[in-house]
Structure formats: structure tokens, C-alpha cells
Amino acid sequence: MTTHTTSTAPPSHRRKAGKPKAVKARATGNRRTPGSYAVLAAVAVFVLAFLAPFIVILLNSFKTSADFRSNGSLSLPAQWNWSIIAEVWERVGFTQKLFNSIQISLGVVLIAVLLALFNAYAIGIGRIRWRTPFLIFFLGVNVLPQEGLVYPIYYLFKEMGLYDGKLGYTILVGITYSAFGTYLLSSVFASFPRELIEAASMDGAGRWTILWRIVLPMSWPTLSVMCVFFFVWSWNEFLYPLVLLISNDNQTVPLGLSVMQGQYTSDPTAMSAAALLGIVPMVIFFLIFQRSLTRGMTAGAVK
Predict the structure, then answer these.
(1) How many domains are contained in the chain?
(2) Average pLDDT over residues 115-133
(3) Is 163 left (phi over 0), alpha (psi -120 to 50) or beta?
(4) 8 Å CB contact between 188 and 225
(5) Burial category of 187 from C-beta neighbours within 10 Å (exposed 0-12, middle 13-18, buried 19 and up)
(6) Contact call for residues 54 and 275 (beta carbons, < 8 A)
(7) Quick check: 85 and 273 in contact, CB under 8 A?
(8) What pLDDT is recorded for position 285?
(9) Which H/E stretch holds residue 144?
């Protein structure tokens, strides 16, 4: 009688035997290809090209005029001159300009977002009549150049007594930006789930309740992106405040920094320090709201 014996390895031995293949597969999957290195190199070049102007501004903001003339704009400061920042701050009156820009930009964001929300709710969800002509109108407002509107607006502000006033300027820019917000939100609300609206209506919710309790929370990612863009656009506006805000007490940061450049004289170090003062608030703003901006853009892409 022949007895056949079969030796079977324990499960632990079998798992151990399979590990090298898995490790090898992972190592092969993580191996970089020449194409990936090329992409990394292209990204590095793009980042350096993007940061180069800011690095030059940062270096020249702390140089003396003699150091700039002797060593050029690309050298490190021979001695870090921190007093030039304070001199530019006092010369420009940066405290008042900074307060004006923050006040105006926040007002523009509030007006533009509210108007865009109401308009888009009526067009995208309410399905009002002549929806397409309204959308074409708002799109046309977005493509009109500022140069073609500035003089009619100037005379209109003169007649209405709004000239050289922060309130009138804030309302103007807010209404202008709301056209873009309306066009953007209308396309988002057009694909809004109708089942939610119908279910809320059957439960007795009115239009205002649907707007504030259902539409607004679900649209907040898009609204947060709009808030960031509107704030940055309003902060960087130059032509409208140049024409409509002429007094020193009402001017914004870009206008205040423009006084550093004269027709026949210029100080590169002072101009660099002024540019640095104008950049720092925007950098701080993006560092604070970068998470909201990223979440909003990601949510829009996923949707």
C-alpha cells in the first residue's frame, strides 16, 4: 500500500512568497520615465519664469540707489535698507490707500455676488421669459471695453453728484462685475436638480426659502470662487479709479503707487518697494482663502 503525502506550505509562507512580486510591481509602477522628467523640467522653468519678477522686486526693494546703480538689479543688496519701505509708506500715504482698497473691494464683492445670485436664480431656476436675450445682454456687458464706457460714466457721475465718491464707484464696479457673475451662475443653475426644487415646493417652501436654504448652500463653492476673483479684480482696477476718484483721500492702492513714477524722474528702488507693498496684501489674501478657492474650483470640475 502506497501512501502519498503532500506537503503544503502554511498560508504565511505563501504570503511571504508573493511579496517580492508585489514590491517589484510597485517599484516598476513608480519608476519615472523620460516624459515625466520632461514635464517636471517644464514645470520648473514655468515656475521660475513666473517668480522671477517677484524675486527682482524683492531684491531691489531693500537696496539703496547707489547700490542699484553700482551692482544692477539682479545682485543681492550690499546692505539691506529697511528704511525705504517706511519712506514709501509715508510718501504714498499707504495706510489710507490700503483702507480704501479693502473697503471698496469688499463692497464690490457684496454687491456683485448678491446681484449675480438674484439674477441667475431668476434666469437659471425661475426660467423667466426672454432668458436667452438676457444672457446675451450680460455677455455683451462683459466684452465691452472700459475705454468705451469711461467717458459716458464720467459725465453720468458728474450729473448725479457721485463723482469722486467711493460709494458711487463701488456701486458702479459691483454692477459691472455682476454681469459676469450672472452669466456664470446662470449656466450653473440651469443644470440644478429640478427634483430638489419640486420637492421643496411640495413641502411648502417659497421662492426665498428655496434660494437661501437649498440653492445658496449648494452653490457656495462657485460663489466662493467668484468672491475671490471679484476682490482681486477690484483691487487691481486702475482706469475707473483714475477717472472717478481724483482726491487723495479716496484713491486706491494702485493709484497711490502710480505717483512713484514721474515723467522725467524715477527711483527704481522706491518703485520696487511700492510694488512690494502692493503685492503683499494680495499674497496674504490668497494664503487666507486658497483653500476656499481650491475647493470651489475642484467642486466645479467634479460637477
Answers:
(1) 2
(2) 83
(3) beta
(4) no
(5) middle
(6) no
(7) yes
(8) 84
(9) none
144 within 8 A of 76, measured Cβ to Cβ? no
72 vs 58: CA distance, rounded Å: 14
Q: CA 114 to CA 274: how far, in whole Å?
A: 34
The answer, yes or no, to whether residue 30 has pLDDT greater than 90, is no
Same domain, yes or no, for 273 and 139?
A: yes
Of the candidates 191, 239, 238, the one whose C-alpha atom is nearest the C-alpha of residue 219 is 191
| Count of CB atoms situated within 10 Å of the CB of 100 | 22
Measuring CA to CA, how many Å separate 128 from each of 199, 200, 254, 265, 303? 20, 19, 41, 58, 24
pLDDT tens string 190-233? 888 888 888 888 888 888 888 888 888 888 888 988 998 999 99
Alpha helices by DSSP H, the chain? 11-30, 34-60, 65-71, 83-92, 94-120, 131-143, 146-160, 166-190, 194-202, 207-210, 216-236, 239-244, 253-258, 268-302
Q: What is the domain extent for residue 183? A: 92-301
What digits encode the pLDDT tens for the residues 239-287? 999 999 989 889 999 888 887 766 545 678 888 888 888 888 888 888 8
What's the CA gap between 184 and 179, in Å, rounded?
Answer: 9
Say yes or no: 128 and 43 in one domain.
no
Q: What is the DSSP string of 69-81?
A: HHH-SSSPPSS--
pTM (2 decimals)? 0.79
24 belongs to a structural domain:
no
Give CA angle at 16 (13, 22), nearest 5°: 145
Residue 182 in any domain: the answer is yes
The CA distance from 250 to 169, in Å, is 10
pLDDT of the residue at 20 = 52
Residue with the three cell numbers 516598476: 28
